[in-house]
Design brief:
This protein has a single domain, classed as Spore Coat Polysaccharide Biosynthesis Protein SpsA, Chain A (Alpha-Beta Complex). A seven-stranded mixed beta sheet has the order 3-2-1-4-8-5-9, with helices on both faces. Strands 6-7 form a two-stranded antiparallel ribbon. A hairpin with a 5-residue loop joins strand 6 and strand 7. The radius of gyration is 18 Å and the shape is globular. The protein is of the alpha/beta class. About 30% of the residues lie in helices and about 20% in strands.
Length: about 260
């Protein structure tokens, strides 16, 4: 698939690695006829704002697969401690990129409009350093799940705090809080857009006090006094972390194909 002719000032990087403890080799799973990585790349290519899409990896098999379906690949250091560092390594080689979107390779059902929404937040707000997404939480199970990261933001859409705990924390519980409009609780969606300067500085910033407790690296940015903008989307993305996640994805895709046939 050929990618859109967006702005060269906007770069989308898909960091992809082989090491996955919960689902071995997940980037290269292909029960649908395409690998998870190719599905994610195809979705990213339907976004209109990025001028380039690059897969960043330190693995030759992933690189070979990415080149097979026509993706541009940059080989990164195997010593990168995180996907963010891998994205920053790519950004250093492309000085024209002012806004860099970090999309994980295990997001085959990402909505291209969500990518554009994210990039537009930084394009339209030059004083912000970073942007990410959030979606309403409508179940108490998700609200109380530490794996579901929550975020609160102000009236201008600026993040105030991220937490694994329910925030805001109701002093008195009322089920109506889960159905309120506008929503009371928001789940953080782990796709990011960075201003170039912040991304290149990120690895050298000291780990924040709250980051050490919550194990959420975006808190490092807030502790530095930087602005993180939050874009609201209607539904959560469906990343693939476990065998059950992948089986559900295959089932949904097969269902869509049968509906079209």
């Amino acid at each position: 698939m050929s990618c859109p002719n967006g702005s060269e000032k906007c770069l989308l990087v898909i960091p992809a690695r082989r090491r996955s403890t919960r689902l071995h080799n997940k980037m290269l799973l292909r029960e649908t006829g395409k690998t998870v990585l190719e599905h994610t790349y195809d979705a990213a290519c339907r976004a209109t704002l990025p001028g380039a899409i690059i897969i960043a990896t330190d693995d030759e098999e992933i690189a070979t697969e990415a080149r097979r379906f026509g993706a541009r690949v940059v080989m990164t250091s195997p010593d990168c401690p995180s996907g963010t560092d891998r994205v920053a390594e790519v950004a250093r080689t492309l000085p024209m990129a002012e806004i860099i979107v970090n999309l994980q390779g295990d997001e085959p059902e990402i909505d291209p409009a969500a990518i554009d929404r994210l990039a537009a937040l930084l394009r339209d707000n030059p004083t912000a350093s970073m942007a990410t997404l959030a979606t309403p939480i409508r179940s108490r199970e998700a609200l109380e799940d530490p794996a579901c990261v929550k975020v609160v933001f102000d009236n201008a859409g600026r993040a105030m705090y991220f937490s694994r705990s329910p925030i805001p924390h109701p002093r008195e519980w009322n089920e109506a809080l889960l159905t309120a409009t506008p929503a009371t609780f928001f789940q953080h969606i782990g796709i990011y857009a960075y201003r170039r300067d912040l991304l290149l500085r990120f690895a050298n910033l000291p780990m924040g006090r709250t980051e050490q407790i919550e194990k959420l690296e975006q808190l490092r940015i807030l502790e530095q006094g930087e602005t993180i903008l939050i874009g609201e989307i209607a539904q959560p993305t469906r990343g693939i972390d476990t065998p059950a996640d992948y089986a559900a994805f295959v089932e949904r895709l097969n269902g869509q194909r049968l509906a079209v046939a």
